[in-house]
Design brief:
Elements (H helix, E strand, L loop, with lengths): L1 H17 L2 H9 L3 E6 L1 E2 L14 E2 L1 H12 L4 E2 L2 H10 L6 E7 L3 H13 L4 E5 L11 H11 L2 E6 L2 E6 L3 H17 L3 H14 L4 H8 L3 H8 L4 E5 L12 H19 L5 E3 L10 H9 L4 E7 L13 E5 L7 H9 L1 H6 L9
Parallel strand pairs: 1-5, 1-12, 2-3, 4-5, 5-6, 6-9, 10-11, 11-12
Antiparallel strand pairs: 7-8
Helix pairs in contact: 1-13, 2-13, 3-5, 6-7, 6-8, 11-12
């Protein structure tokens, strides 16, 4: 099913690009700007089983994107400048913002030098448990469990269940099956209990994953010292906020800002919802972000920005630079607004 979805998306974007429709539609669907989002930027990993590959792009691809943006005629601006333009209606020139989620170490090692070279401002959204070395990268832990074992077991609804995953195809199937089931659980607490049990059963050190992959506070201090860099909040524990009680959601959002201020001396004014799709953040979370005083808050709902988003600054869409689609033509299609307009049924704002 995942392969079919990828094929459909690729076919649609190829059609828009090679027909020239994306360029023809850009004046009508391209909006006033766009926010790009990344996660990992690093050299390609070896191995055929990489279920989280969509979250990582290669440095060469980011170099190409950065060079294209720099020569494309759009303004490359910070989230602060984007906020100013949105609230004042300054739409004389189209703009692009760059954001990077989670604070992985490869942001400092690979993404930063590329964006620095092109003088492109960018925002890094930090879940504070990651630099505190208390974070649970549960999607990575799941990948590690499936990658290292030919058969795995876990408790589902009180019963021991076992999954054979000796072959690469079996591993992909089992990962997709378990990931989908975990995302379907009603609460974040349930998901975390399952992952902890699964990791313990199969000797995967969740804490070590955080330590290996994520920047610490010293590295973040080094990054934040550059005026090109904005530090944004991303909760404490990278929880899907819609799956926790309102009190917990509010605490996760407020505490992340407080911890960043205490650790870096910076008060974050911008926020990103972990996972960020409609099952993870909705009207309740958008309202909390506004009440807490964040200037902007970003989702992962796909889309470009329109003037109407000035009324929904805590429910902003983004365009993902997806590791499965590392071609400049796909970036051009996304920035045109054509593909996301079709995805969104031609609604300019999706803030429900």
């Amino acid at each position: 099913m995942a392969g079919l979805k990828k094929t459909i998306i690729r076919t649609g974007m190829e059609t828009l690009f090679f027909s020239g429709a994306h360029a023809a539609l850009r004046p009508f669907l391209g909006g006033v700007g766009a926010i790009l989002t990344l996660h990992h930027v690093r050299p390609p990993r070896h191995g055929r089983f990489q279920p989280n590959r969509l979250l990582e792009v290669q440095p060469r691809f980011l170099e190409d994107v950065a060079a294209m943006l720099r020569t494309s005629g759009v303004d490359l601006i910070s989230l602060d400048d984007m906020h100013r333009r949105m609230v004042t209606g300054d739409f004389e020139k189209r703009f692009v913002c760059v954001t990077i989620d989670d604070g992985y170490r490869d942001t400092l090692e690979w993404a930063y030098p590329i964006l620095k070279k092109e003088q492109i401002p960018f925002t890094v959204y930090i879940p504070t448990s990651f630099p505190d070395r208390l974070g649970e990268l549960w999607w990575v832990a799941l990948e590690e469990v499936v990658a290292r074992n030919d058969r795995i077991g876990l408790v589902i609804k009180g019963e021991n269940r076992y999954f054979d995953c000796a072959s690469i195809d079996d591993k992909r199937h089992v990962y997709d099956q378990l990931y989908g089931w975990l995302r379907s659980l009603k609460t974040e607490h349930e998901l975390r209990l399952v992952i902890r049990d699964l990791a313990a059963r199969h000797q995967v050190d969740i804490a070590a994953l955080c330590n290996d992959l994520c920047m610490d506070w010293q590295e973040l201090t080094q990054l934040a010292a550059d005026p090109l860099v904005t530090i944004g909040a991303h909760t404490v524990n990278h929880v899907m906020l819609a799956k926790v009680p309102e009190k917990t959601a509010r605490s996760e959002m407020a505490m992340s800002r407080q911890v960043i201020e205490a650790s870096l001396g910076i008060v974050p004014e911008h926020f990103a919802y972990p996972v960020g799709d409609p099952t993870s953040a909705g009207a309740r979370e958008f309202a909390i972000a506004a009440e807490l005083g964040f200037k902007t808050a970003t989702t992962t709902r796909p889309g470009v920005l329109f003037p109407a988003h000035a009324q929904h600054l805590t429910a902003l869409p983004r365009l993902s630079l997806n590791g499965e689609f590392q071609q400049l033509r796909f970036v051009k299609v996304l920035l045109s607004g054509a593909a996301t307009a079709m995805w969104n049924g031609f609604r300019q704002v999706d803030a429900a």
